[in-house]
Amino acid sequence: MDLTNLTPEQRANLLAQLKEEDKKEQEKIRQDREAYKKLRSEAVEEMFPHLLHMSNEMEHLKKRVYDRFSTLLEMKKMVFKPTDRQQIGGGSHTFTTADGSKSIIIGMNVTDDWDETVKDGLDRVNDWITSLIEDSDGKTRTLVGMIRDLLKPTSGGKLKASRIMDLSNKAEELGDEKLIDAVKIIEQAYSPRNSSMYIVAQYRDDKGREVRIPLSMSAV
Q: Within a 10 A sphere around the Cβ of 209, how many other Cβ atoms?
């Protein structure tokens, strides 16, 4: 359409028509958005109580499982007497039926932490490294680099317990008493903080494969 051929009245009518169509389109968009907001609210209101109920049930079940196994956990500690190094290494416990067909794993998510005496152990390790560097060769420099890597803190500024275990194993392997004593001080300074408990349930299917029961919404 060539607008130059339209009369002023025709152009005015066309403009009014376009404005009306645009107004109707904007109104439809507004109504669609209102309808979406209403349906969104209804869906949340409908499903929220079910999710809240499930969360409460899971919380109660989690407490029930922990209460049921807490006596066994204490008995396990008494019977097997874990060493300091074993306590650093893990916080999960597996309980299995006699026929091995079902297992429940109870564990604690742990945040590594250390008391103030860890500084003494670190200072001693660094002194040991310094004395080693004074008479260093290529092999010694490699060893020093590896030990320093094991002492590197995480992004949160904390020593990583698994690395200290590796350092302890390396010290035992080297047989150096100064390094062994320094690492023991670090191990004894370990003071982990428990964050949350987790539970895993699994069974063996008819083909002997371990199958985990999904216990979270994301795992289903």
A: 9
